Amino acid sequence: MPGLLLRTLRGENSPARPVWLMRQAGRYLPEYRALRERKGGFLALVYDTDAAAEITLQPIRRFGFDGAILFSDILIVPYAMGQELEFLAGEGPHLSPALVDASLESLHAVPERLSPIYETVAKVKAALGSERTLLGFAGSPWTVATYMVAGQGSRDQHDTRSMAYRDRQGFQAIIDAITETTITYLAGQIAAGAEAVQLFDSWAGSLAPAEFERWVIAPNAAIVAALKSRFPDIPVIGFPKGAGEKLPAYARETGVDALGLDETIDPLWAAKALPASLPVQGNLDPLVLLAGGEELDVRTLAVLEAFADRPHVFNLGHGIGQHTPVAHVERLLSLVRSWRA
After folding, report:
1. Could you read off the pLDDT of 78-91 as tens digits, one per residue?
2. Which of 137, 234, 255, 299 gives the lowest tally of CB atoms within 10 Å of its CB?
């Protein structure tokens, strides 16, 4: 029988709520920090399949989350498309050449850079019990494009938004190329054992409505349709961070099976505005988890109560912070697991 998380993503509204946390495998865990100190940098860990599988499984062993999220990075896609990728201490990821200065045609694809990720998925799947769901993921084309164009993260995605207005055809080619590689990448993860996948669109909130339709909804709809044609039973979670009032359109037009909500979304509004049968995921503020105390209890219960009448996966509104105390996570899990709809 599928685990609680997978059943919920498929539309079952059970009294208990499955729970996993974005970035649950990472720097807030002492066992992760110890492994990274031994093994080296972030990208080296991603490509060490034994280490990446171990990191994916660490939070499952410690907390028993209902889902294991693959330890990797959204920039594996541009890396496979031919950009060089490095993670610099204190600066974050850098891609070169940046497409603000170079053409898409100058890149030479290196598809073999995807293969170790599939190997990690297979190793985790072999070690994960049937009651836990293995989640794969990729960045959505718009968010990935913002890094490919600028060569790094930015606050307002100025270079990428400007290019999208200035060179519609050229930027469409970038989005189409990312979309094609992402379909291949997620299909490979599913073939290796992923039971659900999530599309992270961390910078979706920076776009005007018409741009959101073209650069967020349209490519995500293409990805979902392609995956559904090959893997009709594999749920796809969409997470367009910052989408706000555009969420209902995203839910209708992309065809995602579940919708992730960031912490800025009022759960009571979402419960009314989104399709009644659509599973939702979220959306506790990661800073509330960091702070802990009674406010953590109050806010957690508010999220649970707001979504009591629909399928709901409890999660944060974004990734868990690296300074979050393990005891706060334990407190959160105790509260979610004792609650019943």
Report:
1. 999 999 999 877 77
2. 255
pLDDT at 341: 84
Tell me if 299 is assigned to some domain.
Answer: no
Choice among 7, 17, 23, 132 that is catalytic: 23
Q: How large is the C-alpha radius of gyration of the chain?
A: 19
- pLDDT (0 to 100) of residue 86: 94
In a domain, 197, yes or no: yes
100 burial type by CB count under 10 A (0-12 exposed, 13-18 middle, 19+ buried): middle
Q: Active-site residue 147, yes or no?
A: yes
Is the pTM higher than 0.90? The answer reads: yes
Active site residue 233: no
Pick the catalytic residue from 28, 32, 118, 147. Answer: 147
CA–CA dist 270, 277 (Å, integer):
12
Among this protein's residues, is 23 annotated catalytic? yes
pLDDT digits (tens, 9 = 90+) for 286-312: 999 999 999 999 999 999 999 999 999
The domain that holds 256 is classified in CATH as 3.20.20.210
Task: Tell me whether residue 310 is one of the annotated catalytic residues.
Answer: no
Does residue 198 fall inside a structural domain? yes
The number of domains in the chain is 1
Mean pLDDT, residues 50-55: 97
Region of 48 on the Ramachandran plot (φ > 0 left; ψ -120 to 50 alpha; else beta): beta
**Does the residue 324 lie in any domain?**
no
Of 10, 36, 214, 337, the catalytic one is 36
